[in-house]
From TrEMBL:
It is a multi-pass membrane protein. Belongs to the GSP F family. This is Type II secretion system F family protein. Residues 1-20 are annotated as: Disordered. Keywords: Cell inner membrane, Cell membrane, Membrane, Transmembrane, Transmembrane helix, Transport. Pfam families: T2SSF (PF00482). Residues 88-211, 292-414 form the Type II secretion system protein GspF domain. The chain crosses the membrane at residues 187-214, 240-257, 395-415. It is found in: Cell inner membrane. The keyword Transmembrane applies. It comes from Dyella jejuensis.
Length: 424
């Protein structure tokens, strides 16, 4: 155990040293080749003299070598997104399948990168490979962009000698996961934005429209109906304590985010509440099952042992409730229980999913069955999002009509009352 820990520590130290070595400035250069043709490019080096020496070694005459200025904001460029990692995985898988050596493939991909941060990452990983590390060890330099699941799949591919196939599978997997995430964001973004717009409209009316009517009612000296009095009182409160309302909203949002991030119990409670929401809860549940099935299918197909695969899958579901359940399943499988039995004990997986898993275990085709489950629930997510959009359209009209229309009607009630008194 001590030997394993020491080896891991040594690997991390070597990775850190390589990361420090590769944090060199980038130089943009202009040079003339042997034909006198003007060439330009960029190169990482310790100083401009070494860049010129390298250009001369390549048979070029340096004309101008200048260190690339760093951005004023953002330092190392835009962030690396999962889609970038998916594209990289597809590119390197294609090149390796075509017989391109891994180091050369990294050079080609890095040269074509427009994201400076990702380019630096690829160069760091490439230099780690050149230093004798395997790909999955070199990827330890960037555990956020290349998570444990990604590295485990790469390690399994390297062990089985099918790294190009595994990387292609990983690319497809990441593309599908990003598609599901975008569907979830679309499903949640629409109602949230409607509520935000409704709140903004109400605030504008309470701050700027209602006071005009309230002044008119006060000058008329008429008794206000109950709905109008409520709106006028709300307007007066907003004018006096608008900062309290905005502060309460900000504190509430920040409190929810930080509470979910810092407290496992609160995150579990919030996630369970969301899973019980009509329609949206169904989307989140189907999404978690689709992610679980797709991720476990990919890892198991790549040759990762089931217990280790479940350990990697737990964080890929996007749900704290399902993540905790998968960890319990991992413990059950580790002591000899079948996967389908462990799934049944959680009470979170539909009977169809459990039955198809049981069939997959008995027939020795667990990965194929999991892929079929994933495809079914991915389609369910798509259909549920479309259904939600259809249901929200009339619901939005009702919400806006109730909030804004109710305020407008309450403001005109005293005018109708005065008009009736005058007519009488």
């Amino acid at each position: 155990m001590a030997t394993v820990t020491a080896a891991r520590s040594n690997t991390r130290n070597q990775a850190a040293q390589r990361a420090q070595v590769t944090q060199m400035p980038t130089y943009d250069w202009v040079a003339l080749d042997k034909r006198g043709k003007r060439m330009k490019g960029s190169m990482q080096s310790k100083n401009a003299t070494l860049v010129k020496a390298e250009l001369r070694r390549q048979g070029m005459n340096p004309q101008n070598v200048k260190e690339r200025s760093k951005p004023l904001f953002g330092g190392s460029g835009k962030s690396v997104k999962p889609r970038d990692v998916a594209i990289f995985s597809r590119q390197i898988a294609t090149m390796m399948a075509s017989g391109v050596p891994m180091v050369q493939a990294f050079d080609i991909i890095a040269d074509g990168q427009r994201n400076p941060r990702f380019k630096t990452m690829l160069i760091d990983v490439k230099q780690g490979i050149e230093g004798g590390s395997s790909l999955h060890e070199a990827l330890n330099l960037y555990p956020v962009q290349f998570d444990e699941l990604y590295r485990n799949l790469v390690r399994a591919g390297e062990s089985a000698g099918v790294l190009d196939t595994v990387l292609d599978t990983v690319a497809t997997y990441k593309e599908r996961m990003e598609s599901i995430k975008s569907k979830i964001k679309k499903a949640l973004f629409y109602p949230v934005m409607v509520l935000v717009v409704a709140m903004l409209v109400c605030m504008i009316m309470l701050l700027f429209v209602v006071p005009v009517f309230a002044k008119t009612f006060q000058d008329a000296g008429a008794a206000l109906p109950a709905p109008t009095q409520v709106v006028v009182s709300a307007s007066q409160f907003m004018q006096s304590y608008w900062w309290v309302v905005i502060g309460a909203v900000v504190v509430g949002v920040v409190g929810l985010v930080q509470g979910k991030r810092r407290s496992e119990k609160f995150a579990h409670f919030l996630d369970r509440v969301m899973l019980r929401f009509p329609v949206i809860g169904n989307i989140l549940r189907n999404s978690a099952i689709a992610r679980f099935s797709r991720t476990l299918g990919v890892t198991f197909h790549a040759g990762v042992p089931l217990v280790e695969a479940l350990d990697s899958v737990a964080g890929a579901t996007g749900s704290v409730v399902y993540s905790d359940a998968i960890k319990l399943m991992r413990d059950d499988v580790a002591v000899g229980h079948q996967l389908q039995l462990a799934m049944r004990q959680t009470g979170l997986f539909p009977n169809m999913v459990v039955q198809m898993t049981a069939i997959g275990e008995e027939s020795g085709a667990l990965d194929s069955m999991l892929f079929k489950v994933a495809e079914f629930y991915e389609e369910e997510v798509n259909n549920s999002v479309d259904t939600l959009s259809t249901l929200l359209e009339p619901l939005i009209m009702v919400i806006l009509g109730t909030l804004v229309g109710g305020m407008v009607v309450s403001l005109y009630l005293p005018i109708f009352k005065l008009a009736g008194a005058v007519a009488g």
